[in-house]
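Researcher: Sequence recovery benchmark, item below. Answer with residues only.
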C-alpha cells in the first residue's frame, strides 16, 4: 500500500480561470503549494476535512498536518520526475483538478520532453483520431466528432481543453486508455462469462481477481445502486476490473513499446486511489516506478495516495446555450421543445424545427449541437439554420446562460 508523503494545498489563480476558459488555454500555470507535516500541528486524531466533507481516520497513532511549512511546485516536481509513471486522479467535474493536472504535465514536460499522457476520457478504438488531433491534422470540432466525445464521455470539454491544446502545441503523445463503454456495460449486465465472441475484442488479456480492499470499496459504490439481479455485485466487480485492467494494459503497451518515455495518467480518482486500480495492474505489466497524486473533492484517508493537492473549487464561466430540447428522429435532429424565455424562443425557433446548422456546423445528431457550442459563453451570437416544413430559415441567436437548458 502507498503512504501519504505530503498533503499539498494548491490555489488556482482567478485570472487563469478566465484565461483557460476561452481560447488561450495552453498558458503556463505555476501554483503555490503548502506542505502539511510539522508544528504547529492540526492533529488528525479523528477527522480530516476536505471540501467540507469530514472523513474518519483509521484507529492507531494519529498523523499530524503542518500548515506552515511551504513547499513550492519546484520542490514537488523533482520528486515526481524520479518516477516513470505519475497517476493524477481527478473528480471529473472539478475544473481546479484539471488545472492541477495541466500544471504537473507542463512542469514534467519542461524537464523531459519524452513524456506521454494517458487518459481515461477516450476509448481505445479512437486512438487514430486522437493521434490526428495531436498531430494537427484535424480541428478541435473534428476531433470531438470523430471520437464521439459527447456520446462516450460527455463532460464539459472546457474542463479538458487546456490539457489537449498543450499536448497538441508541444506534440506530446496522448494514449486513449479506456475500453469501450459498451464492453464495460455488457460485463456489468452479464459478467465476463456471458460475453459473446464479438464483444471480447477489447477485453484485457489478463484479469487478476480483486482483493478484499478493492471489493470493499466497490461494495460501498454498489450499495448506492442496489440491484436485485442475481450475481449483480460480482458482475459489477468484473466490470470495474475490465475497466482498470484495460486501461493498465493500454498504458503498458505504450510504455513497453517506448522505453524512453514517461507517462502521466489522468483518470478518475477511484481508478488510482490506494494503488489497487490501475497502478497495481500497470506495475504488474511494466515494473515501472510510480507516484499517485489526487486533488480536492475526494475523501482523504490514510494510504490513499502519495500526494494530495488541496485546491480551491473553481467554476467555469456559464456556458452559452440555445434553450432547446432536441431529439434524433428519421435521421434528423429535431427540436422537441423550446425553453420558455430562452435564447431560441427569443430568436424565433419553434418546436418541430429541424436543425440544419449551428454556428456553421452541420447537425445530424444531438451531440453535434454540443460540439458546435462547447466553447461558447452567454452573450455569444451564433447562426442557426433550420428546416421548417418545406422552407429553410436562418436565425441570429444570442446564447443565454442557464444550467437547466441542455443546449
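Model:
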Amino acid at each position: 500500500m502507498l503512504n501519504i508523503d505530503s498533503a499539498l494545498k494548491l490555489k488556482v489563480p482567478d485570472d487563469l480561470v478566465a484565461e483557460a476558459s476561452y481560447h488561450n488555454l495552453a498558458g503556463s500555470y505555476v501554483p503555490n503549494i503548502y506542505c502539511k507535516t510539522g508544528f504547529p500541528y492540526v492533529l488528525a486524531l479523528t477527522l480530516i476535512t476536505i471540501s467540507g466533507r469530514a472523513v474518519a481516520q483509521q484507529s492507531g497513532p494519529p498523523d499530524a498536518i503542518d500548515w506552515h511549512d511551504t513547499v513550492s511546485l519546484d520542490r514537488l516536481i523533482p520528486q515526481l520526475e524520479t518516477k516513470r509513471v505519475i497517476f493524477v486522479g481527478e473528480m471529473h467535474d472539478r475544473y481546479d483538478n484539471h488545472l492541477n493536472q495541466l500544471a504537473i504535465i507542463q512542469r514534467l514536460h519542461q524537464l523531459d520532453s519524452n513524456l506521454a499522457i494517458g487518459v481515461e476520457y477516450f476509448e481505445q478504438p479512437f486512438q487514430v483520431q486522437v493521434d490526428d488531433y495531436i498531430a494537427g491534422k484535424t480541428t478541435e470540432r473534428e476531433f470531438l466528432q470523430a471520437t464521439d466525445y459527447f456520446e462516450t464521455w460527455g463532460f464539459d470539454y472546457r474542463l479538458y481543453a487546456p490539457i489537449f491544446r498543450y499536448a497538441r502545441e508541444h506534440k506530446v503523445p496522448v494514449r486513449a486508455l479506456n475500453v469501450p463503454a459498451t464492453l464495460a456495460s455488457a460485463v456489468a449486465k452479464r459478467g465476463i462469462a456471458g460475453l459473446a465472441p464479438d464483444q471480447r475484442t477489447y477485453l484485457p488479456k489478463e484479469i487478476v481477481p480483486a482483493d478484499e480492499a478493492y471489493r470493499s470499496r466497490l461494495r460501498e459504490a454498489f450499495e448506492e445502486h442496489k440491484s436485485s439481479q442475481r450475481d449483480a455485485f460480482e458482475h459489477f466487480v468484473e466490470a470495474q476490473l475490465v475497466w482498470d485492467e484495460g486501461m493498465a494494459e493500454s498504458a503498458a503497451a505504450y510504455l513497453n513499446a517506448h522505453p524512453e518515455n514517461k507517462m502521466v495518467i489522468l483518470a478518475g480518482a477511484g481508478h488510482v486511489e490506494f494503488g489497487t486500480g490501475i497502478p497495481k495492474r500497470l506495475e504488474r505489466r511494466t515494473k515501472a516506478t510510480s507516484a499517485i497524486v489526487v486533488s480536492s473533492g475526494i475523501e482523504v484517508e490514510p494510504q490513499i495516495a502519495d500526494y494530495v493537492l488541496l485546491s480551491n473549487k473553481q467554476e467555469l464561466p456559464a456556458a452559452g446555450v440555445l434553450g432547446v430540447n432536441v431529439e434524433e428522429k428519421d435521421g434528423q435532429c429535431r427540436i422537441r421543445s423550446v425553453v420558455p424565455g430562452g435564447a431560441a424562443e427569443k430568436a424565433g425557433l419553434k418546436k418541430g424545427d429541424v436543425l440544419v446548422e449551428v454556428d456553421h456546423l452541420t447537425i445530424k445528431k444531438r451531440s453535434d449541437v454540443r460540439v458546435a457550442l462547447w466553447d461558447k459563453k452567454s452573450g455569444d451570437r451564433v447562426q442557426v439554420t433550420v428546416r421548417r416544413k418545406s422552407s429553410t430559415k436562418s436565425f441570429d441567436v444570442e446564447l443565454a446562460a442557464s444550467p437547466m437548458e441542455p443546449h
